[in-house]
Amino acid sequence: MIEYTEGIYTFYVYILTNKNRTVLYTGVTNNLKLRLHQHESKLNPNSFTSKYNAHFLIYFEKFTWIQLAIEREKEIKNLSREKKLNLIKEINPNIEFWNEHFK
What we know:
alpha+beta; three-stranded antiparallel sheet; 4 helices; 20% strand; UPF0213_domain; GIY-YIG_endonuc
């Protein structure tokens, strides 16, 4: 049996969208503030988020174990668009952009 105790690190699973809310991107990071800045500044111009201008944070979950965060990221990525939107709307009913909370 694997038993998880509280870890000392914080990891985030997050969902980004574009200005028109037509694209959904799911990622994982240990520094959401930095990662949002990287997406916004198009650090990698060939990336999905750069091509589709997806840098608006609309959802995130916090974890203390990277293994659990990666597992959750994979779960979310495998959801249909409709299920992803339902997940987002549970905590962000108006699909507002939350980037300002991490400036």
